[in-house]
């Protein structure tokens, strides 16, 4: 089952038909005319903007299609918006309303705008009604606005501009049609937030309630853009260094841990400091201090620019040597090979980290390590789960921000199993072209990615066709870490 494109007007059909490989039909205001019940439908055409913040030639993608009947959701709209923006088009997402007659009067448009709708046309809701719930999509190019009305001579210029924008959208429309179809989505379990991330976020939330905004946070509390934006909305202020925080202010240290010098600098500014360091990261810091106290050189297996590694190395910069991979492990030198230890960044790919440790053990027989594995339980569980899902998937999508180490490792683990795998920040960053011919998609989320992102992605995929959702679970997690006394 592939999607079908509807162009209600002849001018819209002429703008698109020679640019599309997808089926495109001119439907007028009717849901008939070549549409088949059960098919995804994309209505492409022109519309009138309800507010002057939209300009002629802008595109509007409907997240809801309103008419005389119940509003119709458009589940795939974030996928379309992301694709169109990456194509360089100016795009807005929101409700589109269908009326029986052309709405040109400014007062009438203001009345519709007050409902939250962005644009008005006379066909979308009627055509979209032929699609199953959620499977209709609408892309409309703006011809007129309240300040540039339809029934004016300027439409002779604005109309072609809108149709040209619609024509530029043709590759995205084609990708939508090719990506349409029924598929299975297999969720990896566990996925999304771990106990350390939940604890760190809760610390900031409680600090905002207890002390009131602003609450300052050194660096990103966890490596996820959605989490950071939501906490900023509530009153958190993120800074790079404690020197940027006003003296005496409430300051939270992020989950990745910090070097002792950061605490010293915070104390010098009389900051009310709340430590959100993940207890498993704090364990690695403790191990480094223990090994250094023996006079050992400590190999820190990890990525040297990652905040966790920077903070851990800061415990003893002269005695901690970062080793990124097996090649570096084969070249590293120390003054006394009889006094060496190793620790690991908690968010590494398990197999790669072990390969690096194995090289170090071969080269340094006296090497000793931590009493228990440094790579955290959540990282291990999520890697095992995505590995199980990837073996039978055509495509694996990993939700997580690009600066999230554990999320990056999940994509790498999935790719190592032979699956096509991508790290995506959210559903809007999924490329429709990846979905062509794909019938089984594995989905997971890094330990710092909100679970809502998984729900949103599944909903978007359900806008391309029927989706059967299953789960492959390799472990259950019931760990919860205590909160610091400052917010408990």
TrEMBL record:
Keyword Iron-sulfur: yes
Binding residues for isopentenyl diphosphate: 223, 256, 306, 404-406, 448
Record InterPro entries: LytB/IspH, Nucleoside_phosphorylase_d, Nucleoside_phosphorylase_sf
Binding residues for (2E)-4-hydroxy-3-methylbut-2-enyl diphosphate: 223, 256, 306, 346, 404-406, 448
Top-level EC class: oxidoreductase
Necessary cofactors: [4Fe-4S] cluster
Keyword Oxidoreductase: yes
UniProt catalytic activity: isopentenyl diphosphate + 2 oxidized [2Fe-2S]-[ferredoxin] + H2O = (2E)-4-hydroxy-3-methylbut-2-enyl diphosphate + 2 reduced [2Fe-2S]-[ferredoxin] + 2 H(+); dimethylallyl diphosphate + 2 oxidized [2Fe-2S]-[ferredoxin] + H2O = (2E)-4-hydroxy-3-methylbut-2-enyl diphosphate + 2 reduced [2Fe-2S]-[ferredoxin] + 2 H(+)
Nucleoside phosphorylase domain residues: 41-131
Binding site for [4Fe-4S] cluster: 194, 278, 376
Domain of life according to the entry: Bacteria
Residues where dimethylallyl diphosphate binds: 223, 256, 306, 404-406, 448
Active-site residue list: 308 (proton donor)
Pathway(s) of this molecule: Isoprenoid biosynthesis; isopentenyl diphosphate biosynthesis via DXP pathway; isopentenyl diphosphate from 1-deoxy-D-xylulose 5-phosphate: step 6/6; Isoprenoid biosynthesis; dimethylallyl diphosphate biosynthesis; dimethylallyl diphosphate from (2E)-4-hydroxy-3-methylbutenyl diphosphate: step 1/1
EC number(s) given by UniProt: 1.17.7.4
Signal peptide: none
Cofactor binding remark: Binds 1 [4Fe-4S] cluster per subunit.
Matches recorded under PANTHER family: 4-HYDROXY-3-METHYLBUT-2-ENYL DIPHOSPHATE REDUCTASE
Entry's family note: Belongs to the IspH family.
Protein name in the entry: 4-hydroxy-3-methylbut-2-enyl diphosphate reductase
Source organism (scientific name): Kribbella orskensis
Gene (name only): ispH
